[in-house]
Design a protein that fits this description.
alpha/beta, 11 strands, single chain, 7-stranded parallel beta sheet
C-alpha cells in the first residue's frame, strides 16, 4: 500500500461522551467490565445458584476488591434488566459507555508504533452485528471502531454481550458524519477501503498492510453511495455460492483477517 502523508485540519466529529447508565449481562461481559473498568461498575446483580462456582468466585472477588455493591436477586428481575437476553444469572450495572474521540483511536496506533487500522461502520442497525464486529476488530488488531451518532445502533448491553466483553477494551468513537470522519482519517494519512459487492478489486489482490480504514455498510443496503465517494478503493469478497452478499459482521471479520494476515499477525 502506498504511504499517505498526514495533513492537518478537520475536526468534524462527535466529542467522546458518556451515556446514561447501562446494564451489561452475561458472565463474560460482566467479568470483562470488572477486569477492565472496575471503577465504572456501580452494582452487580446475581441469581443465587445460577452462576458457576469458578465464575461466581471471580465476580464476587473482583466486586469486593472494587467496592462494588452485590445484590442477590430473583431471575425474573434480571430478565427485565437484560430485556429478555441470555444473562446467565448475572447483570452488571455500569456508568454510561465512554466513547472516545477519533484522534484517540489514531493515538492508540501511534503509541504502539503500528500502521493505524480503523473499522468505520456506516449505518449498522443490528446490535448483534455491532457486537460481533467489535469482537473481531479487537481480536484481529484494529485500533478502534467508528460509528455514527444517528441512524445507527449504539453500544448497549446486547452489543456488549455479542462482543463477549470486547467493548471494554476496543476504543469506540462516535461521529456526527461518517463522510467527514473518513476525510479526517485520510488527512491523518490513512487509505480508505470499503466493502462493496460491486467492487472491482478482489480482497486477496489488494495491498492492505499500510495505514487503513475499513468501511462496512449496513445490513442489506451496504455502504451508502455518498460514503463510497469518500473511499479510495472498493473491495469485493469473492464468493462461490449463489447468495449475493454476506452478513455485515462476517464481511468485517474476513476483511480484518486479511489485513492481519498481510501484516503478519494481529497487531497487539
Amino acid at each position: 500500500m502506498r504511504e499517505r502523508s498526514p495533513k492537518s485540519g478537520g475536526n468534524e466529529r462527535e466529542r467522546g461522551g458518556t451515556e446514561a447508565p447501562r446494564y451489561v449481562y452475561g458472565v463474560n461481559p460482566a467479568l470483562e467490565a470488572l477486569r477492565a473498568h472496575p471503577d465504572a461498575v456501580e452494582r452487580l446483580f446475581i441469581v443465587d445458584g445460577q452462576v458457576g462456582a469458578k465464575a461466581a468466585g471471580e465476580l464476587l472477588s473482583r466486586a469486593r476488591d472494587a467496592g462494588v455493591r452485590v445484590e442477590k436477586v430473583a431471575r425474573e428481575r434480571l430478565n427485565t434488566m437484560a430485556e429478555g437476553g441470555v444473562h446467565q444469572g448475572v447483570v452488571a450495572e455500569l456508568r454510561g459507555f465512554q466513547y472516545v474521540d477519533l484522534e484517540d483511536v489514531l493515538a492508540a496506533a501511534k503509541a504502539k508504533g503500528q500502521p493505524a487500522l480503523v473499522v468505520v461502520l456506516d449505518g449498522i442497525q443490528d446490535p448483534h452485528n455491532l457486537g460481533a464486529i467489535i469482537r473481531s476488530a479487537h481480536a484481529l488488531g484494529a485500533h478502534g471502531v467508528v460509528l455514527a451518532k444517528d441512524r445507527a445502533v449504539q453500544v448497549t448491553g446486547t452489543v456488549a454481550k455479542a462482543s463477549a466483553g470486547a467493548v471494554e477494551y476496543c476504543p469506540i468513537a462516535r461521529v456526527t458524519n461518517i463522510s467527514r470522519a473518513l476525510e479526517e482519517l485520510k488527512e491523518a494519512g490513512l487509505w480508505v477501503a470499503a466493502a462493496d459487492i460491486e467492487g472491482s478489486e478482489p480482497l486477496w489482490t489488494a495491498k492492505l498492510d499500510g495505514p487503513l480504514a475499513l468501511v462496512v455498510g449496513a445490513e442489506g443496503a451496504g455502504v451508502r453511495e455518498g460514503v463510497l465517494k469518500h473511499c479510495d478503493f472498493r473491495l469485493r469478497i469473492p464468493m462461490a455460492g449463489q447468495v449475493g452478499s454476506l452478513n455485515a459482521s462476517v464481511s468485517a471479520a474476513i476483511l480484518l483477517y486479511e489485513v492481519a494476515r498481510q501484516r503478519g499477525r494481529p497487531a497487539r
